[in-house]
Amino acid sequence: MTLYRQTLLALRLLWREARSGELTLILLALILAVTATTAIALFSARLNLAMEANANDLLGADRRIASTTQLPDEWQTKAQNLDLKTARTMEFPSVVLHGDEMALAAIKAVDDGYPLRGRLAISPEMYGAGDPQLHGPQSGEAWAEARLLALLNVEVGDSVELGISQLRISGVITEESDRGGNFYTLSPRLMVNWRDVENSSLLGPGSRINYRLLLAGSDDALNSLEQELVLEPNQKFESLDDGNQAMAGSLSRAKQYLGLSALLAVVLASVAVAICAQRYAQRHFDISALMRTFGLSQGQVLFIYTSQLFWIGTLATLVGAGLSLLLQAGLIEVLGDLLPDNLPAAPWSAWLLGLSSGLISLLGFALPHLMPLSRVSPLRVLRRDLVPVPLQGWFLAALALIALTFLLWLFTADVVLSLGMMGGGTLVVLLLLAMLHLGIRLLRRRLQNIDLPLALRFAWQHLSRNSRQTAGQIIAFALTLIVMIVIGVVRNDLLADWQRSLPDDAPNVFAMNIQDYEREEFSFALDSAGLQAEPLYPMVPMRLVSINDVSVTELAIADDRAIDRDLISTTFNRLPDNNEIEEGDWSLMTSQAQQLSVEAKLAKRLGIKLNDVIEFRASGINFKATVSSLRTVDWGSMTPNFYMVFSADVLVSLPTSYLTSFYIPVEKQTALTQLIREFPGVTLLDTRYLLGQIQMLLQRLTLAIELILAFVLVAAGLVTMAILISSTQERLREGAVLRTLGASSGRIRQAQMVEFSLLGGVAGLLALLGSEAICYGLYTALLDIPYGGLGWLWLWLLPATMLVLVALGTLLMRRAVTVAPLRVLRELD
Amino acid sequence: MTGVDRNNVATSLSVSALTKTVETGGQALTILKGVNLEIKAGDAIAIVGASGSGKSTLLGLMAGLDLPTSGDVSLLGESLVNLNEDQRAAVRARGVSFVFQNFHLLPGLTALENVMLPLEIRSVKAARQEAKKLLAEVGLAQREHHYPSQLSGGEQQRVAIARAFAGAPEILFADEPTGNLDRKTGQQIEDLLFTLNRDSGTTLVLVTHDPKLAARCHRQVYMNDGELFETTQEEKAL
Known about the structure:
Helix content of chain A: 40-55%
Largest sheet of chain A: 6 strands, mixed, barrel
Strand order of the largest sheet of chain A: 2-3-9-6-8-7
Distance between the termini of chain A: 31 Å
Oligomer: heterodimer
Radius of gyration of chain B: 18 Å
Largest interface: A-B, 32 and 35 residues
């Protein structure tokens, strides 16, 4: 028979079998696999892009060049030649005057290209609602933050002096998404036109100006620009990674979660495919034998089944692709306002990833089960008990593992993570299998001479007789449960972790430069306004001079950004909650003098170790301290955080100002204005916008995670059904036989219920053990969240699993007790 | 062996000194103990014997579904013992077909499609028409589009017979073709089998423990404990 004829025959057989409903289950499993993986791949890719775009808002660009000197004009031209959009900004501190009032402001001059990315919104009045803007202020005009207007006592429409220019305030800044930057150096913003400061004396020598060239466009163009330009040491390409830490942390964890969900969805779908393929193969032993008696060779039979598999895979992929589009559209519809208006299209790689998952899982999980079909002895037509020797267990497992690892790698693009997850997963499954095997053997021996109640005996005999099938079913159930548990538990802890680091009443205003003499007054003012504040931390800006008597300028770290810059330092009465001692002894801080605790990451970067003697300079005074501990700091928390913490004695001799943060609810807005007026010397930094942005992002992520959780749960439900359905036939046959032997339907139902609850109980137990192991690994290795165990799950999961299985099983098996046994037997034969 | 001498007719199957030994539970069990048999083309032969006498094993070896421990089988002029499974399958493809006790219809295919299958495998162009004709011959023209589960046992076996005669095989092996049917239905199936056998000139090798069915064949051989005994109609009548 020619290849063409074989293909035709395979297709014809496939079509006929499909029509009779024989292929429905495997097709459904595959469609589920493809839909789940494609939808998650597409959605997470798009969400990822959207979140990156959102994070780009914070940068104000896709990438930007920062410099402390003026940037050459030709750089902008080069960028534009690469089809990149550009905008220039410069930021510097300057005094702004209005009549007798003066205030230090953070000036930002922007050119006509600004804003490139992100949002800039202006209100025509104090505390009014903002309108998004496509350009910065006109020449001769300026936009200011409300607190600057409060400080200067001006209204919209008044003019202020900046250097020699008179600028009319034409709007109040309500949103400036790329404001970012370092909290401690921020004064209120005054945004002006580039032309108004370009040639002014403000930019004279000695002025501290940060120039930025904002860039937006394709990654390729950005990369080639980055390669082309030769930057000076004071110039730097900035990208997302340099952005806000709190946001970056949440973002990367959310990405990991999405990735994890996609992976687990693939695992689930693969389990379903394997189960269906096994059943499909078993149901085709007879046909294969028959085809051999018709004269087909082994190769031809194999070709027919593999090509059928290929067509099934293709069909499932096509249908899955369509469904995933629908599902994705549904997700986006549901998320509505939370998603950015112009959600970027999914990259082709996401499509490829999702769509290839069907074929890969067929290759790894279905093909190995179909291969024995070609080796069915034709003698089976005379002796039905002749079943082909299945492939070696290790071979099946190896193929499945390779396929799964490949898929994981496709999904995560991370070889180490994929291999790690597969290794861990395999270990868990092997361990579970071994425990199961041992358990069944032990029980079999124990129960041999014990008269169990009839229902229990039926159930036990059925389970232990087909121990291979039983083990497979239990592992499949357990894997499904593990997926659900892991996805659910990680979700809870992720959300809890976010909420913990950013509670609703997280401090949203920082107060700095509180002088010693106004400490009590300021605290009193906060109290009487009913505002809850963090303690007042003393704060001394200082510079690093030497480490172990070697000047930092002579060390390899001389170029580090922590050198030649004020490090804000303090002393603590006690260690705050979001600080943890990583190394050393905190108690030395109180028991000994001249002690220092350094933030662990900075210490690592600068090569500072315990017991090093560090020299600092503050207010013209040099002093030394010994490093007695290294601390980790949760920079995501909105409380004052410090790199250097000294024992109290060190700071006594230094001029100290104080720093605190507090939460102002929207309705107490006027209290803020009051504070600004009352303590003009105190710098109040309003982070409400930033916080709002982070919280909105987290809300989006939370919703996305909920949706994906729901999706994985549906997938898990379907897998459970597939497992149950795959064993329906045999159970139906047994039920019918038992009834012909006179067993009452009640007794059969009882036996089935006992069997299903045994299955559910054992699978649930294994799942709990496996999940503990997997979660522990995930939390410590990947998510970096302390793992607290599964807790209450241990109590309710077992009964819940048993109940669900019994309910589903009874539903599926009701034919075994309601339809005439003869009919069941005839239909099955 | 005392073969019936039907001169001038080609031999369609010959078996010489065939033995089959299997291992069961660590013990060697000899199922066939040197069987010799020659079957002429167009002949109808019944292999009769009690269950466990080895007749199904012999059938499997003759059809090339399994290999003997020693001895030779020559099917349609080809010695099977030196052929591998696929080469033996190729011999079957040239003109061997089967009818089984438990029908072996494909549950996912309709009656018509079941009959079409071997024709399609042999790349017969007008498979559908041919299959329809055969189904009509076995009296199932009205049930072409029924699935096996929707047919009675007798009807299923008729479909199986139509399938067996599809492509005009040279030799047809039937393993207890009426074993699963009641007496009356069995009778009808037998009639059908012999009519088609006669009309098409196919060689029929029938395994049964039913003496009445065996009696309808030209020739009967008896299997007893792995050995074959020849007897003719006349001898049996005696």
